[in-house]
Amino acid sequence: MLLLMACGPSATTEPTKPPAQPPATTAAQPTAAVAQPTATKPAAAPTTATAKKTVLRLPEGAKITNTMDPGISSGGNGLEQIQNMFEPLLYVDQISGELKAGQAEKWTISPDGVTYTFNLRAGLKWSDGQPLKAGDFEYAWKRVTDPATKSRYTQYFYPIKGAEAFNTGKGTAADMMVKATDDRTLVVTLERPAPFFLQIVAAWSAMPIRKDTIDKNGDKWTLNKDTYISNGHYRLVEWKPEQSMRVEKNPNYWGDNPGPDEIVWTLFEDPNAQAIKSYEAGELDHAQVVGPDIPRIRADAKLSKEVQKLARQGSNWIVLDTTNPPFNNIKVRQALNYALDKAKINQVVLKDGYFDAVSVVAPGVPGQVNANGIGYDAAKAKQLLADAGYPGGKGWPANVKYTYSSSSADNKAIGEAVQAIWKDTLGIDIVLEPLEAKAFDDWRTSRKNQPYGMYINGWGSDYEDPNNWYNLLFDSKGDFYYSHWKNAQFDQLIDAGLKELDVAKRKALYEQADKILNDESAYITVYHWGRFVVTKPGYTIPRFRVLGRVMGYLVKMPQ
User: In 10 A of CB 159, how many CB atoms?
Assistant: First the structure.
């Protein structure tokens, strides 16, 4: 899901991403008939206060734009806190990327691939000590699907039988086939097999929620420690809006938590500008570095030993309206793509803040192939533009706009760079159109049926499956970015990929689709996501390439 979602930005700013990421609902075939994971976290006695309390200090954006409600959040600011305080049935290991048992101790999949049975661990509790039951998951999942909730990830559960009908008013909650058959058993029936369904189960939208606190407190339930009842490694202690948030180890969590006793997030209006200053002042243990601070810190004798460049599985690209002239001509799109020296933009304009672009889909996603990408070739770009009827830029239409959100300094820098590069290389002019963030979101939403030139946006993996990219974003039936691009062969390949059970065959289908996607150049990738972080000596803070939030229980504190 988006310029989202993935998921979306974290404490410090990451590239923009749209706020929704529904899974494709195209028919699929069964996965392995049975899966039998085992518990991976040793049960331990509740943590008790120690003489020397350990505290991890992190930055976060002041505006929890997507709320602290797991059932509503689309990621971004607040997701790191949610992930530390809640746990779904399964979770993605933030070191290996493997799916592991969380609140469920095991699960089985029926031979036909449509019925999932999750068995919860014995003795699970909420942070206030109340028993956690399978019914809490049933309630949470149906609440996300209920249109009245206005969740941004409603369609996540569409693979469940009856979910789409419930969400669209054609069915009821009772018809949605997620059922707690007893306090420790949750049975889910899908419309059809979906190889990626366990990834959905591990997402934050699938975390349990307590019905009684929501019934009593409504949308205010997230605001204080007495009502924000959670089930993860940590629990809320204090939230001072736009100032700070403090959590402590949850003594009722089922497993061990070797992380710090407390995590304190300082909330910044502009984390990119402010967090690094606090870090250098000794007020934070970890922070992200962007823009001009990157070369400065790399050149600093002390700070250069504390900085790391980490992968973040995502891409930022220029989206072209492929039904609007001149971009309805594939040669024009390819000319612009070949003319763009992406490595130069990243390394010079963006101070090597990201990773050089190699293809539309980010490296590491099954199906993505580096060789399918469009590299820099100025001579070929000029020939393609001439073949398209614009030799040396002659006849190029006036007022071709490049629209971007002015909330990001990178967007402006990229816009100015591509404007200059295309002018120098191809002799064409484009007009930069900055819009305030809200205005940009409204403008982008309206592009579904409205013509435009181009805009910049991007996507980060919510889960590492080709479905999260090829099917969700580029299937012509979904057209998530409103590029209006359609290619029947591409659609057929990704539909076949969604149905294919054989891992190797499935990957090959997406690799064929990947080549078409790159060749057609409806999306011109500018860079792949990355992040520079600084960490105080003695701390070990893993950050996985997918989502990549700081998980307190994995943090090793100085001895």
Answer: 22
**pLDDT tens, position by position, 499-526:** 787 889 999 999 999 999 999 999 999 9
Q: What are phi and psi of 550, to 5 degrees?
A: -80, 120
Q: What are the φ/ψ torsions at residue 282 (nearest 5 degrees)?
A: 80, 20
Buried b (16+ CB within 10 A) or exposed e, 425-446: bbebebeebbbeeeebbebbee
Q: Would residue 398 be called left, alpha or beta, if left means φ above 0 and alpha means ψ between -120 and 50 degrees?
A: beta
Over the Cα atoms of the chain, what is R_g? 24
Task: Look up tokens 């949850």; give the residue.
Answer: 250
Torsion sign, CA atoms 132, 138, 144, 148: negative
Encoded amino acid at 282, one letter? G
Under a CB-based contact definition with an 8 Å cutoff, are residues 24 and 475 in contact? yes
- Position 116: which residue type? Y
| Average pLDDT across the chain, whole number | 89
Tokens 């929501």 belong to 214
CB distance 287 to 275 below 8 Å: yes
Q: Which of 515, 480, 523 is nearest to 494 (CA)?
A: 515
> What angle in degrees, to the nearest 10, is found between the helix axes of 330-339 and 409-426?
110
Backbone angles phi, psi at 263, to 5 degrees: -125, 130
- In 3D space, the residue among 100, 146, 116, 91 whose CA is nearest the CA of residue 32 turns out to be 116
CA distance 109 to 114: 7
> Do 120 and 186 touch, CB atoms closer than 8 A?
yes
CA dist., res. 60 & res. 67, Å (int): 13
Q: How far apart are alpha carbons 289 and 177 in whole angstroms?
A: 45
**pLDDT tens for residues 38-91?**
444 444 444 444 568 999 999 998 876 557 999 998 777 899 999 999 999 999
Q: Which residue type is seen at 26? A: T
Return the number of other C-beta atoms located less than 10 Å from residue 201's C-beta. Answer: 25
Each residue's pLDDT tens digit, 279-326: 999 999 999 998 788 989 999 999 999 999 998 999 999 999 999 999
User: What are residue 256's phi and psi, to 5 degrees?
Assistant: -80, 155
Cα–Cα distance, 363 to 189 (Å, whole number): 33
Question: Cα–Cα distance between 69 and 221 in angstroms, integer?
Answer: 8
* 467-490 residues labelled b (16+ CB within 10 A) or e (exposed): bbbbbbbbbeeebbbbbbbbbeeb
